[in-house]
Amino acid sequence: MKKHFYFILLLISSAGFAQTSDITFINPSSVITPKGYSQAVTVDMGKSTMLILSGQVAFDKDGHLVGKDDITAQIQQIFTNIKNIVEAAGGNMNDVVKLNYYMTDVSQVQVLRTIRGKFVNTAHPPASTLVQVSKLFRDDILVEIEATAVIPKK
User: Fold this and answer.
1) pLDDT beyond 50 at 91
2) Whole-prediction pTM value?
3) How far apart are CA 121 and CA 151, in angstroms?
4) Distance (Å, rounded) from C-alpha 79 to C-alpha 139?
5) Helix (H) or strand (E) holding 111
6) What per-residue confidence (pLDDT) applies to 154?
7) How many other C-beta atoms lie within 10 A of the C-beta of residue 35?
8) Which of 36, 40, 51, 60 is the most exposed place for a label (fewest CB within 10 A)?
9) 149 Cβ contact list (under 8 Å, min separation 6)
10) Angstrom distance (rounded) from CA 145 to CA 98
């Protein structure tokens, strides 16, 4: 019985699960350094690197809210933050493959699309999800955006 246990353990440990050395937690200096979590995680996938970003809000690198009560300014800052993180990981905005939007007012979706169009390839836009929420973690935060990128290795 002991032999079977070790064999199963060996199979599980070599079954392709990401190991710590394949994962890097990053906090680029171009965005705020958060408390209690990382801004992004890179996952080595062999020929490419997957970059998974935490939800971005309209904080500048010093932690100040940009655009109180101004959804346009908040979305602009959020996409700037996403761009800064993607570039710090060695990619560009064309590498973004998925965006998740959390908005307190989805009637402002055209504002979101207009600003997004300045940052992503609109001919081949990333997959996306839009969710209206009643509130985010602070009353003055109007939008939060998560992003995932797949960055080809050079």
Assistant:
1) yes
2) 0.85
3) 15
4) 20
5) helix 109-116
6) 84
7) 6
8) 36
9) 50, 51, 53, 86, 89, 91, 95, 96, 97
10) 10
